[in-house]
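Recap for those who missed Tuesday's class. We walked through two folding examples back to back. For each one, the amino acid string is listed first and its predicted structure tokens come directly after. Nothing is annotated here on purpose, so try labeling regions yourself before you check the end of the notes.
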Amino acid sequence: MKTIRHLFRRINYTSIPVKRIQCEHSIAHSLRISPPTGEKKAEALEWNSALKMNNLILVNEKISRLDDWPVNLRLELLYQCAPQPKLRNQNQLQEQQRKYRLKLKKAIESERTNGNVQAADFLQQIFDAKGYVSYSKIEQFSRLPMQRKNQRMNMLKTYLNAHNQLRDRPCANAVYLQEGIFKIPHQWDVNQNTLDLEEYMRFTEKFLKAHFPEYPILAIVGHDDERTPEQQTGHHPHYFLSGKNAETGEYDLHKRQIKVVNAFIQQNYPKDELLPADGKLTRKQSKVFGEYFQKMARDYANEHLFDPKELHVELSPEAEKKKKKRK
């Protein structure tokens, strides 16, 4: 069994402007295209253009050569992944949505109490809706018996105005997209005969589906051009994971990942303290979360990828010393 090191890094992007631009640049880098906003100077030897035909991309569970994707399709994928620009009046709309959501809830209770069950059920459906709600609902609602009709109609119009504009826009500090990188550094001499790029990408897909099945994998890009032609090592996947829960519509990836890490702690380190489930971590807790996440990914990679190949990932002695010193 050969002991190696394995790099695993996560980067969370929110929808605030500076993070959105960073995200666009990073996705553009992975897709080997120019970023659509801002200027970025290409670093020397960032990748080897002579090897670009080796790069792969996984979208909708299918792997193809990145070189076969025209620039316009890559740019379209970038816009599908990256956070949307903030609306000019987004803060006001969010406050409007919050206030009128409370009004909607009170109206449902009031109409039900007064026997207007149809009106209450109709408003409840709109209250529960996650996606776009047609404005034709306003006219449909007007035909139902209810209290204070004009007031109820204005309430519904105002709520839908805010809801439909904000339906796919998380709050500014929510994780919109997570990028992750798995990589074995060159010095460990693991080449494609031992672990090929497509297998590495499929492992990444398996890891994400096993731990975060509710969050869509938007793309996994496999790079094999960040090396010299003589080197046969250094190939690695980047993943782009949506922060939006496909089942609930909530941007709650951070909380979900804390929940998964807590389950890992309970199972493997039952005496250790769990992390706050509300997602509000101190700086110290964030470091602890990162360490357990790394451990979880390392254990999974050993079991499902490396051990069967007579490879085993361990934490470097220097990192282990730092970890013990922090504790």
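Example two. Treat it independently of the first, because the proteins are unrelated.
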Amino acid sequence: MKKMAVWLLAATTLLACNNKDNKPDTSGIKVDLQFKRFDQDFFSLDTNNLQQGLAALSGQYPELTGIFLQNILGAEPYAAAENSRLYLRMSAAIRDTINDVFKSTAELEKDFTAAFKIVKYYFPDYKVPAIYTVAGPMDALAQGAYGPEPNFLRPDFAGISLQFYLGRDFSIYHDEYFVNNVVPLYRSRRFSKEYIVPDVMKLVAENLFPDNSKARPLIEQMIERGKQWWLLDKFLPDTHDSLKTGYTTRQLTWCRENEGLIWAHIVKTENLYATDPFTLQNYLGEAPFTQGFSQEFSPGNLGSWIGWQIVKKYADKNSSSAVKEIMEAAPGHILEAAKYKPK
């Protein structure tokens, strides 16, 4: 029994050390997060006095109001009140659902605060953005670095479009027009509030280290995407990989169990330095699966996952390097130094 107790103590200590390495101590870091419900303030406007109400809203949210009216509602400045009145009348059902799903944002605020503390641990000069929730039309996706996104990041704030986080079973997400013209089902299954923090922190990672590899070969883009996921993993050490990658748990299990076969297939059948759109889209684009692999188990965007494994291998071999150094390392150097040979 004594030997067993000693073994358990050693194992517990080892696990604690590993967790400590992965999750930094941020107890001494202060973050004053501003979290504001623009959606509620907009929905509470008096439709009989919209000009004055919009002016007051603009005073309260000077950076956001114009973006919401022009870019999200699509209203010309001269028609802002008219468009707002029309949207307010048409969006009552969405408003009620949002108010039901997001009765409280306390948990979101807690999770964002914890995440930004870690960001400031690694990057002390980082200016934490305010978080504003909005609720626009059901087709009002923002254009992100890798395609349409529910959220958007500006120098001083991040906008969260709550209409895209109402739960995978929300009826509009299954509407034929929405599925065929806005977001397919394999993507809208991630439209649940547990994805909000990972989705926004992806934008933060991309903002800190923009991916400039779009015109580069496949392997370089895979590794650059992998660096983004590696950094996101640093920012959210307690968050499940399915929320960070967008893969299902079954897809993640398939990736882990077949890592060697996936890499061998890519090396054997593809030119790692290919730049043709079809190859890049197949391995780096949003899709229900990756062509050439199991339609039932493989995820889309499989190249990003392999890139992440390569970066993790490199980071493990360079554990004394700062996060910034890992992120700024050239893809070719990472590939060569990682000596990635999964079984």
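Answers for example two:
The beta strands are 35-37, 130-134, 142-144, 147-149, 151-153, 157-161.
Residues 137 and 249 are 31 Å apart (CA to CA).
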